[in-house]
Amino acid sequence: MKRYLLLLCMGVLCSCTNQKSRYTNFQPGQVWEDNNGQHINAHGGGILYHSDTYYWYGEHKIEGHKGNTAQVGVHVYSSKDLYNWKDEGIALEVDSLNPAADIARGCIIERPKVIYNQKTNKYIMWFHLELISQGYNAARSGVAVSDSPTGPFTYLKSMRPNKGHWPLNVEDFHKKAVADTIKSAYCGGKECLPNHPDSLNLLGRDFEGGQMARDMNLFVDDNGKAYHLYSSEENSTLHIAELSDDYLSYTGNYVRVFPNRYMEAPSIMKTSNGKYYFIGSDCTSWNPNPARLATADHIFGPWTELGNPVVGTEDQKATTFESQSTYILPIQGKKDAFIFMADRWRPNNAIDGRYIWLPIQFENGAIKLEWKDQWNVSVFN
Ligand code: DGJ
């Protein structure tokens, strides 16, 4: 009997150990199982590193096309080694009781990101919010807060950014009167706008009500200042906006960058020599397109585009390995070691979206992304 118990204990111990160290590398594009054997459900995600642990937040998707709307909320996982992830549950739940709530079940919650505020000791989540049954018309930023990295997060508010503030690099024409026809026009994407929508003065149109904010990211600089990057002006132009000290609102300092370039999927990093790098994409709905790299010496720019960072086949370059950027992850304890994180969307069966994580390689002041079937962080040694 004693022997049987011993064997049983060893078996349990073994299976736990196996589970814990199941993965020893990244396998981009493959099903990536969590500690329960379920494909990780954290799309359009971002990572927070806090107290020796990585936390991965992302859109929880369900099966089918309906999975492109928020039926559950924002999922969070934790990991010590970046390969093996523990399901920590739903960090922010949609509101299933009140269909009029901002985050009512069926709204759209995309690209959630979490940062930690040292002054308030709070975890702050920002996400792209589209109100229920309005398509992508609302273009709002949602904010939620928690005392713990794994939540539960409490939904605070949503807004259109920088209401009543001109960007630091505003141009004279922005301040001119906006035609009524343009005020009432709604345009969900670039197909219905001219190549250079400056003529429409979308910034001026949204000055009073706040600027549109869709694809987004957050970035905390070395000095603790946080920034919100979001696709604005009907996606035509990206904004980089400084957040208040508590990370819950805007200071009103912001810039327009990449005007009329329709940059989506903004992700950003900073190297030890103080240079900022940006990787984003063109705006083609769920379809992949060539990634775009840019660099700057200051977060507010000027930003210089450096072309497509993908090195590989024509197909890989044209589709960024069939994916779209979502976050750039600095690896703790390694100098200038970053992971490019992207989504391979599956809009017809959203839950099956795959994760493309690749090492960022530096070459002549630029970044190079190359496909790897499998790899681990030793590539950075
Ligand atoms: C591309 C964006 O990057 C995604 O986050 C999502 O908004 C889709 N467009 C919707 O078409």
TrEMBL record:
Pfam families: Glyco_hydro_43
Keyword rRNA-binding on entry: no
CDD domains: GH43_CtGH43-like
A molecular-function term among this protein's GO annotations: hydrolase activity, hydrolyzing O-glycosyl compounds
Keywords in alphabetical order: Glycosidase, Hydrolase
One GO process term, biological-process aspect: carbohydrate metabolic process
PROSITE patterns: PROKAR_LIPOPROTEIN (PS51257)
Domain of life according to the entry: Bacteria
Family stated for the protein in its record: Belongs to the glycosyl hydrolase 43 family.
Stated name of the protein: Beta-glucanase
UniProt organism field: Flammeovirga pacifica
